[in-house]
Structures are given as C-alpha cells and as structure tokens.
Amino acid sequence: MHSVTPVRTYVLIWVVLTIMTFVTYGVAQIDLGPFNIVIALAIAAFKMTLVIWFFMHVRTDSPLTKLFVFAGFFWMAILFVFTLGDYVSRAWMPGGKFW
Amino acid sequence: MADTHAVATGHSTDHSPHLRHHFDDMDQQFDSATFGMWVFLLTEIMFFGGMFGAYTVYRNMYPEAFASTSAYMNPLYGALNTAVLIVSSLSMALAVRAAHLGQQKALQICLLITMFFGICFLVIKGFEYHEHWVDMKVPLFGGHWNYSEAPQFAHQAQILFCFYFFMTGFHAVHMLVGLGIMTTIFMMARKGTFSPTYYTPVEVSGLYWHFVDIVWIFLFPLLYLIGHTRHLV
Amino acid sequence: MSTVLQDPQTTETPNYLNAEYGWKSWLLTTDHKRIALLYLISISVMFALGGVFAMLIRVELLTPEGDLVNSDTYNKLFTMHGVVMVFFFLVPSIPATLGNFLIPMMIGAKDLAFPRINLLSWYIYVAGALFAIAAIVMGGVDTGWTFYTPFSSTYSNTFVITAAVGVFISGFSSITTGLNFIVTIHKMRAPGMTWGRLPLFVWANYATSLIQVLGTPVVAITLALLALERGFHIGIFDPAIGGDPILFQHMFWFYSHPAVYIMILPGMGVISEVVPCFSRKGIFGYSFIAASSLGIAIVGFLVWGHHLFVTGMSMYAGLYFSLLSMLVAVPSAIKVFNWTATMYRGSISYATPMLYAFGFIGLFTIGGLTGLFLATLGVDVHLTDTYFVIAHFHYVMVGGMVVAYLGGLHFWWPKITGRMYPEGWGKFSALLVFVGFNVTFFPQFITGYLGQPRRYHAYAPEFQVLNVMSTAGASILALGYIIPLIYFIWSLRYGKPAGNNPWGATGLEWTTQSPPTTFNFDVTPIVTEEAYAYAKHEEAHVG
Questions:
Q1: Is it the case that residue B13 has pLDDT exceeding 50?
Q2: Residue-range definition of the domain harbouring residue C458
Q3: Domain containing B141 — which CATH number?
Q4: Cβ–Cβ of B32/C113 closer than 8 Å?
Q5: Among B90, B180, C80, C92, which is least packed by CB within 10 angstroms?
Q6: What's the pTM value of the predicted model, to 2 decimals?
Q7: How confident is the model over C107-160, as pLDDT tens digits?
Q8: Residue B78 burial (CB < 10 Å; 0-12/13-18/19+)?
Q9: Residue A98 C-alpha, separation from nearest chain B C-alpha, in angstroms
C-alpha cells in the first residue's frame, strides 16, 4: 500500500523541526519590528509543511489527498482574507491616504 | 440501465477478518479510512481556523495590549512543549512505520513513548495554567483577573487571555482525546490486532496526532512570542 | 412506522425492511437505508414542531395589535421557528434522508464508506435536537436564530447556551454525514461509474458535503465562543471591553450563508433527476449542471458579508461582498436554463414529482432573483430587516428546498417502501402547496418593500390585508403538508405495489428491487452508459 520511509528520514526531519523550534525562540529575542511575527509564522509554516509532507505521508499520498490538504488551507485563507479585508479597510475613507 | 453484469466482488479474493462487508478489498478500506481522516482534519483546520481568525482580528486591533501580555507568558515553557510534542510526533511516525512492517514490539514501545510525551505536554501545560492562576491572569470562572500592572490594557488584554485559554484549552482537549485513542491503539497492538495488511487504525490515529502537533506549532509563536523583545530590551 | 412495515403483505421478498425485526434492529442498524428512515422520522417531527411555531406567528400577525402573545413570547416564537427549521430540518433534510438512502445505490455501492459513523451521526442529531427541545421546554430562546451578540451573550435572559449547545452538537451530525458522502463518492463507485456518469443528485450532494465539512466547524467554534462568553461572563464579542460584535456576525455567516447552499443544492439535485425522467429526455448540459453545483459551493463561501451591509462593516468590504454575491446568480441561472432546456420538446408527463419540479423552478427563480435585490448595496439598506428578506428567504428555502424535498420523496417513495402513493391526492396536495405557499409569501414581498419590519408582533394597520392573506395562505400550505403525511403513512399498507421501476427511470437505484435488499445489489453492477440515457431507452421501446 504505502512505501516504507526509512527511520533515517524521520529522525532527520525531527532534528530539523527541533532546530527550527530553537531558531524561533532565538529570533524572538531580537527586535526586528514587524518582521518578528513574519519570521515566526514562516518558520511555523515550514515546520507544518515538514510534518504534513513526511510524518503524515502526504509526500506518497494520492493527488486527491494533496488536493484536500490544500483545500483546507485555501478555505482558511478565504476566512482570513475576507474577514480581515473588512477590518483593514474600515478606517479608509474616500479622499484619505489609501484612496 | 440494463447493462448490469456480474463481477466478482473482492470477498472471494481477500479473507482478512478485518475487511468490512461493504468494501471490495483491504486497499479500498485503507484508502477510505485514511481519506476519511483527512476530510475530518479538514474540519479541524476550519475549527481551529475560526479561532485563529478571531485572534488575528483582535491582535490587529489591539497590538499594544496583546504585546503587554507577553510579560506573563513564559516562552521557555512554550518552546519546551513544542519540543516535547515534536518528539511525540517522531515516535508516532515510527509507530506507524513499525505497524506497517509488522514489528509488534517496536510498535508498542513507540506508542508508549508517544503517550509519555503527550502526558509530559499536559503536565507542563498544567504548571503553566497554575502560574497564570497565581498571577491572577484567568478571566474565566467569575474573573480571577488583575491587570493593575498595565491598567490601560486591562480590558483588551483580557480578550487575549480568553483566547489563550480557549485555544490552548481546545488544543489540550484534543490532546486528551488523542491520548484516549493511543490507549485504545496500544491495547489493540498488545492483542496483536495489527499486521502489515491491517494497520489502518494506527495510520489514521497517527494522522490525528500529527495534526494536533501542528496546531501547537502555530500556537507557540502566536501566543508566546508576541512582542516579547520589548520586555527584554 | 416499523410496525406497519412488518405487515406480512409487504414481506413477500426479502428486503431491507423485513431483514430484521424489533426496535433494536432499527436503533442499532448500520444499513444506510434504515438510517435514512430514522432521519426521515426525526426530521419530520422537527418540521412539525417548527411548523407549529410558524402557525402561531401567522395567527398573531392576523391583527395589527399584539394581542395573541406578548412581544417576549413572539421573540421566542420566531427564534425557535428559525432554529428548529434551519438547523434541525433544512440542513439535514435531503442529504440525511434521500441522500443517505440513494447515494450508495446511485453509485453502485453496498453502503456508505463508514456505516457506523452514519448511525452515530443520527444519534448526534438526536442529541442536538434534544438540547434544542430542552431549551424550548424550559422557556425558549429569544435571540433570533442568528444568536447575534452582545444580546445573546450578555442581555438575553433566555436559554441561549442550551440552544447553542444543541446547534453545536447537531453540527457534528452534519459534518459526519458530509464526510461520509465525500469518502463514499470518491472511493466506493462501481466499475464504470466515472465522474462524468455520476447522477446529478450525487454531484449536488457532493458539493453540499464540501460545504458541510468546510463551513460547519466555523459555526461550531463561533457558538462555542458565544456559549463560553455567556457562561463565564467574559467578553470576546462584548464591546464593553473592546470586543467586536461584528466579528461574531462574520464568523456566524461564514458558515450560515454557505449553509443556505447546503439547504438548496440537494434540492437542485432532486430536480435534476426528476425533470429528465418526466420529460423522457437526457439532461441538457450535464457537465454544466455538475460544475455549477461545485461553483455554487465555492462562490457561496465568498459572499457572506452581504448579511452585514448595514452593521458598520467597511464599505469596501461591502463592495466586494456585493459584487461576489451577484456571481452566485451565474451557476444558479445555468441550472434553471438547463432544466428548462431539458423540458423543451420533451414528452412531459404531469406526475406529482414533476409538479413539484415545476413549482421548484418557478419559485426558486423568484427567490434567487429577489436575492439580487438584497445583494445590491443601496437597495439592501432599504430592505434590510423587512419582510422582503423573509419572503426572499422563504421562496428559496420553502418554495425551493421543501418543495424539492417533497418532490423527491414522491419520486423515490416507491423505491423506499415498494408502494405507490395515491397519485390523485399527490397532485392535489402539490397544487395546495404551490398555491398556499405563494399566497403566504408573495404578500410579504409587498409589505416588506413598503417597510414592514421583521421580528415585531405588532405592525401598522395598513399592512393588515396583506398579512391576513399571508396567514390564510399559511393555513392552505399546512394542509398541503398534512395530506401527504397522511397518504404516505396510508400507502405503507394500502398503496399499490410499485414494481422495481414505476417511472421508467434510468439510474442504478431503479435497477434494484423495491424495496431494495440490505446490500442493495446482489452483484456489483458495471456501468456502461451515461446518466439519463432516456433517448436510448425510448428508442429501444419504439423499436
């Protein structure tokens, strides 16, 4: 059914994930202004991708599974973009600096 | 539709006692179960997604108030718990691998390690909750709440703490459910239920466990690392 | 119902109804067909309950004064009518009954992919319904079915948490049903049943399931936050401490707008089955109808903000939500055009299911087009919270969904029970439903446009004539629902035996015996032709 992933790969992924956790923690100690959160979320997204791709075997799964995983995040993005679109643009007024 | 011909169903070729009557063969059953779990995880993504969305809205609205709460969040706990969950995820992945290869002993050991680190996570979380209680930072249960250190943020920080407790709380509930599932899987493994042709429950619960891990991977930076630097510098 | 079905006359051939006897064989069944019947009974009970509230509302509105009930009671009446009808009837209606019964049969499977989860979903539904009924019995809820904060979280003195928990729980029944359908349709199709050959009812339910799976969790977490806020007296949506009530509306409608497509899409699926059968023609534009179901499911997630036009939402958000709302008209219109094109030059027969299909197409078109009024920013400011909204919503939900549900029940009743319903009474009550419905709700377009606000137990005297019409129509409509209930039960014992395929319809479900055996097919069927190959079958008859 599924191809067997070698233990080596799993351990390697685990090492990368752990290092990334330390990196997140370390970067948070440096003040980068708005980039702190950007980097933190980028690292989280990277870690998530590793877990999904290797630990959850999406790498070897059917295109259907890949499509559904993508759909989950796509729909979450719809919720975020359209809701935040309201909040971000509430202060905009015609003739204001964004118009 | 007149063209219904007989076709040999899978029953005659596959005698696994774990094959449910309405599936043709074990492959179809395995595919359906894992795909079903993925569809379920889709709903979980949206469930937590709703909370993350609401959190993001408020964080955008009140950045200073949210940053002020980091004085009461200990990122070391968060980082430690992240590491703990990642170990449990590794052992879970190895458990699935062992089940797939029919390594009964390795399967049981890996499951035990997974459960051990899962419990470690909850214990650490419990200590944290206790500290928040001592700090008077629990706006639940009739308002165990005192924010006199930064009174201008007292209201808005309360929202952050509500989200903190709901998000970590729902996550902890998922951990508890996961531990329950792992216990069941472990009992089944001890009885020798699983084999290279039938390890669907291990695979499917593994997916769930990894998902709960992923939720935490995001909770950690979002809740513990907000404007943390401002209080260090 | 089960006791009637055990009548020896109906048990000549082994089928799913006489396979086992006793209440245990029903309450512990994993047969998708028996679970469909369990759902049928329970949603009918909830429908009757919601209908009683509706009648009380209409009777109160006979006179302009608030004389039958006081305003608090009236608030509870329309709230409980909405909660019961939306969450406990419309959302599960076609998927959980007809969908549950037919989808495995239509794709040539023995059962759904997860039969035990299917049974579990029914128990979850019942648990949720019990919470809702408990809230009603204890004294009701008065927030409106939308549970808007901060009224629901802070000020209302009614059983909001109990009702919210009921809706929360029943959401998981909806999710598990959707999950089951998605996996079944992907993994359990018979050989030859390609995506291009799937009956459109299956396509419609697939699109519905996607919405159930992707949308319901968000309303679950929203109601959970509401219940926690109310229970713990904390403020997540409370403006007093900086919370934003509009955020609740965003999250609520992120599910609840797509939810109206959960309610209408399966109805469209039913119509796509009925129209070709009684026109004796293949469906016109198969792939367009299939794709438009998915289109509605996806675009339906991008439009929820049109419920928030007058709340203080950003005007720019209003702009894009308004534009996107217009887009939903495209896939909906595709369906309507294709159904009418299917009928064009067909040999149409006027059996009861087809009468309901006619009703659906007309009423849904009116409901859909008035939706465009409401999606238009400027017009909506005038029409928000008037009876125009009520009329629009009921044209889609009752004129569309309930009519399609009744049509589907009549169409597949012979398959479900092995008995025919009385055709004359069927036609008569289909007519009653159509007339009663229009008399009830068309006047509300007018009163709404003239400015009668919704959710008040008293109104200006000049609206009385139209409101009396509305109440009279509601009585006719109620009769149109009661008659089928009576003759359906009557037909279980006295109906003519139906035979396997009384309509001469295509589709795998009609190749099995009526009622089907427990595992549907003795041998797994192989599909070698497109869906709705009526032309081919007609030629065979003539030749």
A1: no
A2: 30-535
A3: 1.20.120.80
A4: yes
A5: B180
A6: 0.93
A7: 999 999 999 999 999 999 999 999 999 999 999 999 999 999 889 988 899 999
A8: buried
A9: 18
Q: HEC profile for C251-296?
A: HHHHHHHHHHHHHHHHHHHHHHHHHHHHHCCCCCCHHHHHHHHHHH
The tally of domains found in chain B comes to 1
Residues of B in contact with C216 (CB under 8 A): 43, 46
Chain C partners within 8 Å of A88 (Cβ):
314
Q: Mutating which of C250, C325, C327 best tests the A interface, going by the most A Cβ atoms within 10 A?
A: C250
Return phi, psi of residue B137, to 5°. Answer: -120, 35
Which of A71, A72, A89 lies nearest to residue C317, judging by beta carbons? A89
CB contact under 8 A, C247 and B159: no
The answer to whether residue B125 is domain-embedded is yes
DSSP assignment of C393-436, as one string?
HHHHIIIIIIHHHHHHHHHHHHHHHSBPPPHHHHHHHHHHHHHH
B149 occurs within a structural domain:
yes
C155-171 residue pLDDT tens: 899 999 999 999 999 99
Within-domain flag for B41? no
In a domain, C4, yes or no: no
Question: What's the confidence (pLDDT) of residue C241?
Answer: 84
User: What residues of A are in contact with residue B46 (Cβ under 8 Å)?
Assistant: 72, 75-76, 79
Residue C3: predicted pLDDT: 46
Residues of B in contact with C524 (CB under 8 A): 7, 9, 24
From chain C, pick out residues whose CB is under 8 angstroms from the CB of A69: none
Could A87 and B60 be called an inter-chain contact, meaning their C-beta atoms sit closer than 8 Å? Answer: yes
**CATH number of the domain that C405 lies in?**
1.20.210.10
pLDDT digits (tens, 9 = 90+) for C451-491: 999 999 999 999 999 999 999 999 999 999 999 999 999 99
In the predicted model, what is the mean pLDDT of residues B110-120? 97
Please spell the DSSP secondary structure of C360-372, one letter per residue. Answer: HHHHHHHHHHHHH
Contact by Cβ (8 Å): C297, C210: yes
Number of compact structural domains in chain C: 1
In a domain, B42, yes or no: no
Best of C249, C255, C314 to mutate (most A CBs within 10 Å, chain A): C314
CA distance B63 to B60: 6
pLDDT of residue A92: 79
Domain ranges for chain A, please list them.
Answer: 1-61, 62-99
- C228–B166: do the CB atoms touch at under 8 Å? yes
Q: How far is A67 from chain C (nearest CA, A)?
A: 13
Using the structure block, give the residue that is written with the tokens 């029914």: C122
Cβ contact, residue pair B221, A41, below 8 Å: yes
Q: Residue with structure tokens 């950045």?
A: B63
C490-530: pLDDT as tens digits: 999 999 999 999 999 999 999 999 899 999 998 889 999 88
The closest of B28, B65, B76 to B151, measured between CA atoms, is B65
- Contacts of C49 by beta carbon, 8 Å cutoff, 6+ apart: C84, C133, C136
This complex has an ipTM of 0.91
Residue indicated by tokens 């190895």: B94
Interface mutation vs chain A, best among B46, B86, B117, most A CBs within 10 Å: B86
Domain-embedded: residue C9 = no
Other CB atoms closer than 10 Å to residue C484's CB: what's the count? 23
Report if residue C502 sits inside a domain. Answer: yes
Q: Is residue C3 part of a domain?
A: no
Closest CA to B213 of B74, B110, B118: B118
- Residues of chain B with Cβ-Cβ distance to C225 below 8 Å are 51, 54, 166
